[in-house]
Amino acid sequence: MNEAKIGRRDWLKLGGLGGAAALLGGTAKAAEDGKGEVRGIVFLVSDGMSQGVLTMAEDFSRLVREKGTRWWELIGDPASTSGLMECSSADSYVTDSAAAASAWGGGVKVNNGAINIRPDGSESTPILRHLKKLGRRTGLVTTATVTHATPAGFAAVTAKRDDEHLIAPQYLGVVDLIMGGGKNFFAAEKRVDFADALTPYSKAGYEVLHDRDALLKSKSDKVLGLFSGSHIPHEVDRMNNPEVKAKVPSLSEMSEVALKNLLGHPEKFLLQIEGARIDHAAHANDIAGLLWDQLAFDDAVAKVLEMTAGRNDILVIVTSDHGNANPGLNGTGKGYKGTNKVFKTITGVTCSYEKLFEEWGRSKENTPERLSAMIKQRLGFSLSEKENAALFASITTGEISEWSKQQANTYGLLGQFAGNHTGIGWAGTSHTSDPTMISAIGPQSERFSGIVPNHEVHRHFMELLG
Ligand SMILES: [Zn+2]
Question: 56-97 pLDDT, tens per residue?
């Protein structure tokens, strides 16, 4: 136990050192033991993060920013607990994000694709609806559309996760702080039913925000921040485009505004923060996209831990909802001595695969030569003639000669070709059944050690904040 673990108010109340000695046997000690009272929970999700990402992100972080990751440091902190999250859904060993978030949010395993609708068709009540009725404060922060499966599992009910226009109105009066992408599901002109889903929020006292500056200045207790039509761009694209970077906040910035607001009120709270695009990069076998998004997620973890350091009443949980494509760094060369060199190639990538193909699609004069030049310029390595021809054929004619059905698509092919230069191998292009890492620190953190079935998380939320 040290002074840093004692809240400033506790310190003053107890009269400095003498009081601190008493506190060691009291609340703070209990918090250190993982058993104290919880005033707020911050639940951070790296969506679709396979276990191998932890070490790759750690090594990549040291290469590009000369420091390790905060999550890695947290796992090594004796005050934290670690466990494995069991992630299956009601109808598959492999969950999707809708079923995983419904398990956390609704306390029941549901079929893939459903948001808080049980296999028998009945509804389960999402955690933020329960908590709002009890007067708690609530927040959802994400780099996906705010109506995407992971935030939705905490606050919405719908049979199909893709009905995001049906999810958009459901946060009204349930979620105080909503931040992420997804303007297209609120603005009348973009919605499938042309109904205005923004005005009801502003009428109910929400500050509706669309850019970074407005968010950083915001002091509102109710915020609907929509910073992109669809998802927020991959971090590698955000950071390499000054215009986008000026307009779109980082996950860490959104998290800071939300948590500052929640900490500034006396009510108990639950804040979910999702690094969503790790999952999308994994589906695309895009290692640079994935690692930069994981580092952006890690910045949010670092910010939350910095803001809650010295307190004994905030439980911070860091986890993932499922593995995805299980990327791994393969030993390369004799005695694996070429491994570090090929891994370093990833630092030269300046855009996501999503962006690469978006740019490719904008030109009408696409040739194999242009594809080869774009890959060299944006990804920093050259495809062999054969690889380039195969990739070009997959894009232009859909023709793919590939034995693995998982990787028989343009992204799967490029992922494998890139692996010849980066050392990264992929198990496929879809989610996996692996358990995910769960780390926790703060009061009651011991609940999240050992094997944690995903639907049990809801019970803990209710017991701690209900
Ligand atoms: Zn996914």
Answer: 999 999 999 999 999 999 999 999 999 999 999 999 999 999
Question: Residue 114 C-alpha to ligand 1 middle, in angstroms?
Answer: 14
Pick from 27, 38, 123, 60: nearest CA to 345: 60
> Strand 269-275 to strand 137-145: parallel, antiparallel, or no bridges (unpaired)?
parallel
Q: What tens digit of pLDDT does each residue of 280-307 get?
A: 999 999 999 999 999 999 999 999 999 9
Which of 287, 253, 283 lies closest to 59 in space, CA to CA? Answer: 287
Candidates 3.40.720.10, 2.40.128.20, 3.90.180.10, 3.30.450.40; CATH matching 38-326+438-465: 3.40.720.10
Question: Taking ligand 1, which is a single-atom ion, which protein residues have CB atoms under 5 Å away?
Answer: 48, 279
Rounded distance between C-alpha atoms, residue 208 and residue 206, angstroms: 6
Active site residues per annotation: 97
Q: How far is the CA of 48 from the centre of ligand 1 (A)?
A: 6
Q: Are 283 and 427 a contacting pair, CB within 8 Å?
A: no
- Whole-number Å distance, alpha carbon 457 to ligand 1 midpoint, is 21
Domains of the chain, by residue range, sit at 1-33, 38-326+438-465, 346-425
User: How many angstroms separate the alpha carbon of residue 49 from the centre of ligand 1?
Assistant: 10
